[in-house]
Specification:
Elements lengths: L1 E5 L8 H11 L3 E5 L12 H14 L2 E10 L6 H18 L3 E5 L8 H22 L2 E5 L7 H11 L4 E6 H6 L4 H8 L3 E6 L20 H10 L5 E4 L16 H15 L1
Parallel strand pairs: 1-2, 1-8, 2-3, 3-4, 4-5, 5-6, 6-7, 7-8
Length: 266
């Protein structure tokens, strides 16, 4: 497995500094938070996109994916949702990123079957655009569809190879799903895995990997035993928790921790 971290952990940091952190601490890739607060977002012009791609190439670091904020099951018209997905897909293509992350975001007041159908319809419509650009759309286990079992209610009906899953291990755990069950549900669709750690279910402030309560060893063991060899991406939610320790000082130990888990699972 290859190791990456998300720029959610280093909010607003210039890309040369992000890449310096990756190379200094032995990370193979970076997940880019695609938001106007950040250096990379869909508003970038062609020259800026080419510059970002060149920076990553020269550093020998991969863009794992773009973490977008589209909510594919949200109420409303399909048009704006599809337009936002397509903007992210074009940006990912221009940067050489294989994945775009989307959220479920269903309305809790609506019947789940209705929300599932909305999400599947939109993802199905965007799938051909994704295929044409060589990018996969990944539905993250999050908010209204936090477990693998919930995510496949959407992914199953879509049935397109350019629509898959992003396994956020925090949300499947909060949903009461065991890692083996999450993997079994998501495996046919799995793009990559977001790892993180927190002190408790009630306190989502990020802590160093291995210092909290999430079953990271079990997750890595399940992935290893099944022969999965994709990305493990550390999503440290510094942007939402200003009091959390800076990620830069944790990256080295975090990499060693993940490497140790991979070694033990081998």
């Amino acid at each position: 497995m290859k190791l990456a971290f998300s720029t959610l952990g280093v909010p607003g940091l210039p890309l040369p500094d992000v890449l310096s952190l990756a190379t200094a601490h032995g990370y193979h890739g970076v997940e880019l938070r695609a938001h106007p607060e950040e250096p990379v977002h869909p508003g970038l012009g062609p020259a800026e996109r080419a510059e970002v791609a060149a920076l990553f190439r020269s550093a020998g670091v991969e863009v794992v994916g773009l973490a977008g904020y589209v909510r594919v099951a949200a109420p409303g018209e399909d048009g704006p949702v599809l337009a936002e997905i397509r903007e992210l897909l074009r940006l990912a293509h221009d940067l050489g990123a294989p994945f775009v992350r989307v959220f479920p975001g269903a309305d809790a007041e609506r019947p789940r079957e209705e929300s599932d159908a909305i999400a599947a319809r939109r993802l199905g419509a965007a799938a051909e655009d994704a295929a044409a650009l060589g990018v996969r759309i990944l539905l993250e286990t999050h908010d209204s569809h936090r477990t693998g079992a919930e995510a496949i209610r959407v992914l199953g009906p879509v049935g397109h190879r350019h629509v898959g899953a992003l396994w956020d291990v925090l949300h499947t755990w909060l949903g009461g799903e065991q890692p083996a069950d999450s993997y079994a549900a998501l495996a046919p669709h799995l793009g990559y895995v977001q790892v993180k750690d927190v002190a408790s279910a009630e306190d989502s402030t990020p802590v160093p990997l291995g210092a909290g309560v999430l079953p990271l060893a079990e997750c890595v063991d399940v992935l290893s035993r099944r022969g999965w060899d994709g990305w493990l991406c550390w999503e440290y939610e510094k942007r939402w928790h200003e009091s959390a320790a800076p990620l830069a000082g944790l990256l080295g130990d975090g990499r060693e921790y993940l490497a140790r888990l991979l070694g033990e699972a081998a």
